[in-house]
Structure formats: structure tokens, C-alpha cells
Specification:
about 110 residues, mainly alpha, 2 helices, flat
Length: about 110
């Protein structure tokens, strides 16, 4: 956990899948919570988890939306920022076409 002022950020967790049944990611998050609670100056912590995370909702009950803002400062920067929505759309289309299919050819869900 990295701390600065009143806040902290936890690292993205990774572990050996062979130990998945022991829930090492959840155990590490519980330890992050313990460290957070034992540090009086901290008022918030970013768990560094996606909203779609299925397991961490058991540890992190509250949510705060973090927004990304991008500003182009020069001509090329403004063009790049203007192209971002198109690039995101293209990425979604590529991911959708690469979606695994089931035995009947239908996209797996």
C-alpha cells in the first residue's frame, strides 16, 4: 500500500492460480484493510479494482467513482483527444469479434 497525505492506493494483486482455492487475493485485500484501519491519518484508500470485480465487493463495501480527464494542449494533442471515442469504439468492436464461441458457434457468455 502506498500512502500520501490522507489517502492510500493498494497495488494490483496477482497470485499463482494453483493457490486460488485459498483466496490469496482476498486475504491480501483484508490485510490492506487492516493496515488502513491501523493508520489514523488515512481517510480513504483506492483498492485499484474494477467496478466489475466479483470478489472484492466482500471487502470493499463503499464505492467512489474516479473519472479520467484528458486534455490536448497542442494541435496534435487535441487531434489525439478528439480521436479517443473512435479508438474506444474500434477496441470494443475488435474485442467483440474475438469473443470465444461455444460448440454451437454462438458467442459464449
Amino acid at each position: 500500500m502506498l500512502t500520501a497525505g490522507e489517502g492510500a492506493v493498494s497495488f494490483k494483486l496477482a497470485y499463482d492460480e494453483a493457490h486460488a482455492s485459498c483466496s490469496p487475493g482476498i486475504l491480501a485485500e483484508v490485510d490492506n484493510v487492516r493496515q488502513f484501519m491501523e493508520t489514523p491519518r488515512l481517510r480513504w484508500i483506492d483498492s485499484n479494482t474494477a467496478r466489475e470485480s466479483t470478489g472484492y465487493w466482500r471487502v470493499w463495501k463503499d464505492r467512489r467513482t474516479v473519472q479520467r480527464v484528458t486534455i490536448g494542449l497542442s494541435g496534435p494533442g487535441r487531434v489525439a483527444v478528439a480521436a479517443l471515442p473512435l479508438l474506444r469504439l474500434a477496441k470494443r468492436m475488435v474485442v467483440k469479434t474475438r469473443a470465444p464461441t461455444g460448440s454451437d458457434g454462438a458467442a459464449a457468455r
